[in-house]
Write a structure and sequence with these properties.
Layout: H1 10-51, H2 53-62
């Protein structure tokens, strides 16, 4: 699968940033960026788990169980 590479000029990026600023406002942007970053991290973690389920199972089997305390 080949990655899709989009070439944006400085004008394109500036225009996109202005539109985003107008749509969401200055106060919502940090909140939006944080949630976008968290979503991206969760997606990467899920993709990694889906790609290597056999290795994950093998790692889980190798880990010793923590001692049980009463």
């Amino acid at each position: 699968m080949t990655p899709c590479v989009a070439m944006f000029s400085a004008w394109d990026i500036t225009l996109i940033l202005i539109v985003v600023l107008l749509l969401f406002g200055g106060k919502k942007l940090p909140e939006l960026a944080k949630s976008l970053g968290q979503s991206l991290n969760e997606f990467k973690k899920g993709r990694g788990e889906a790609e290597k389920p056999e290795e994950k199972k093998a790692e889980d089997e190798k880990k010793p169980e923590p001692p049980k305390t009463a």
